[in-house]
């Protein structure tokens, strides 16, 4: 069964510092990969997605993610974090073509001044 | 991207009553819809998958008689929480996809509080 692992439950970063959130997946083939952000009490917002092609994916709000097949990883990065980036971040995976999306446990990002 | 709308955004109901949550795809035909539940400070857990005109497929541990899912049209799926109890209080989120898109589109979620 496919699964998604986000090893960090929470991360604290200073405003202006760089950020990397880790995500590993377990699936035989290359799945479709996503990063979502959720502010408290809100729905999900898609940051970026990877289906195929260039392994470095650019998203909204200055985020990017890199797919590394050899490491089964899809880590999210941002060069300079803003206080408004504080939220919960979810990595997700699906097989595409109508299959269900499975979410990781999430990583809570705290941004300190 | 495509738009998925959930209604209501929040609802409070008395214990023992039933609550219906609607999920609509506004600008595409959703052949498949998914329902998730999210408890506070936890991840989204898939409850069930529904295909238009077919019975929903429930994930292990989800009571199909308690969480009734209807996907009668290509633009509407409903989740009915029957005989709701306080432990059913949660954030419920739907997503929808069609045969063309490679991703599912999510609704804004419904906060259910059972008192």
Question: How are the secondary structure elements laid out?
Answer:
The complex is a heterodimer of chains A (113) and B (115).
Chain A: E1 3-5, E2 10-14, E3 19-21, E4 24-26, E5 32-38, E6 44-50, E7 56-58, E8 64-68, E9 73-78, E10 87-94, E11 102-103, E12 107-112
Chain B: E1 4-7, E2 10-13, E3 19-25, E4 32-38, E5 45-51, E6 57-58, E7 67-73, E8 76-81, E9 90-97, E10 105-106, E11 110-114
Parallel strand pairs in B: 2-11
Antiparallel strand pairs in B: 1-3, 3-8, 4-5, 4-9, 5-6, 7-8, 9-10, 9-11
Low-pLDDT segments of chain B: none
The share of residues in extended strands of chain A comes to: over 45%
Number of strands of chain B: 11
How big is the Rg of chain B? 13 Å
Number of H- or I-type helical stretches of chain B: 0
Number of helices of chain A: 0
Low-confidence stretches of chain A: none
* Class per helix and strand makeup of chain B: mainly beta
Q: From the alpha-carbon coordinates, what is the Rg of chain A to the nearest angstrom?
A: 13 Å
């Amino acid at each position: 069964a496919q699964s998604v692992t986000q090893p960090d439950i929470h991360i604290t970063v200073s405003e202006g510092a760089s950020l990397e959130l880790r995500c590993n997946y377990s699936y035989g083939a290359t799945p479709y990969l996503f990063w979502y952000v959720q502010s408290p009490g809100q729905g999900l917002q898609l940051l970026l997605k990877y289906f195929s092609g260039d392994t470095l994916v650019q998203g909204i709000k200055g985020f990017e993610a890199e797919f590394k097949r050899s490491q089964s990883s899809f880590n999210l990065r941002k060069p300079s974090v803003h206080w408004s980036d504080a939220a919960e971040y979810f990595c997700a995976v699906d097989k595409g073509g109508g299959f269900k999306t499975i979410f990781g446990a999430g990583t809570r990002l705290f941004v300190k001044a | 991207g495509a738009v998925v709308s959930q209604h209501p955004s929040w609802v409070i109901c008395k214990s023992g009553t039933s609550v219906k949550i609607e999920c609509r795809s506004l600008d595409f035909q959703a052949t498949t819809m998914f329902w998730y539940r999210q408890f506070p400070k936890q991840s989204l857990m898939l409850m069930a998958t529904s295909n238009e005109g077919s019975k929903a497929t429930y994930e292990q541990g989800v009571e199909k008689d308690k969480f009734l899912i209807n996907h009668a049209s290509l633009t509407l799926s409903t989740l009915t929480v029957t005989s709701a109890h306080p432990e059913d209080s949660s954030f419920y989120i739907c997503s929808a996809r069609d045969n063309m898109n490679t991703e599912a589109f999510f609704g804004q979620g419904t906060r259910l509080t059972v008192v």
